[in-house]
Amino acid sequence: MNTDTGRATADDPSAFARPAARETPPAPPVRVRLALPTDAPAIAAVHQASRQATMPYLPPQRRTHEEVTRWIREIVLPQSHTLVAVRGTELLGYASLQGELLEQLYLRPDVRRAGIGSLLLAEVRRHRPDGLYLHVFQLNTGARAFYAHHGFRVVAVNDGSANMENLPDLTLRWTPAPGPVPPRGTP
């Protein structure tokens, strides 16, 4: 900088440096919590967007957002143990469990392959440590690969007569690996 004029000169390259860019604060961590009735509209939006993006072979959706929200609020939440993955106030995905049956596990399409599905599944397993099962369309190769990666195995093949979409599906089961057997005589 030219000290006489207070202006930057070529002799002092740092004088031309741009001001430091403001760093964006890190995103809040993703956490899993129990779903609340007030989450129903966001869960419905995730459900609809995920099915549309990941299952293009399904017929076009006939249910409105309001109808799906009512189904979530009046059927899914009261009858299932439903967990949501959130980042701050933003709902990213959900999982719904009825007994040993994982009924639903859906993510917003823009957050897939970021570990959020694995986080939800880990929490579901924590609630069902003896094992669980689920149904998946045979055409849903992405979900099948996800569940196979997490140790689920095919236990039944179905022709689609048992689901309202009439699409062939698979029943998958996860059973935890047996732990080490303690030596005889140990407490």
CATH architecture: 3-Layer(aba) Sandwich
Strand order of the largest sheet: 1-2-3-4
Radius of gyration: 25 Å
Strand and helix order: EHHEEEHEHEE
- The strand count comes to 7
Number of domains: 1
Enzyme class: transferase
Domain N-acetyltransferase: 30-173
Pfam family, one: Acetyltransf_7
InterPro entries: Acyl_CoA_acyltransferase (IPR016181), Bact_Acetyltransf (IPR050832), GNAT_dom (IPR000182)
What does this structure look like?
By secondary structure, the protein is α+β, with helices and mostly antiparallel strands. The chain has one domain: Aminopeptidase. It is 27% helix and 25% strand. The protein has four helices and seven strands. The strands form two sheets. It has a four-stranded antiparallel sheet with strand order 1-2-3-4, sandwiched between helices. The protein has a three-stranded antiparallel sheet with strand order 5-7-6, with helices on one face. The mean pLDDT is 86. It is an enzyme of class 2 (transferase). InterPro entries: Acyl_CoA_acyltransferase (IPR016181), Bact_Acetyltransf (IPR050832), GNAT_dom (IPR000182). Pfam families: Acetyltransf_7. This is GNAT family N-acetyltransferase. Keywords: Acyltransferase, Transferase.
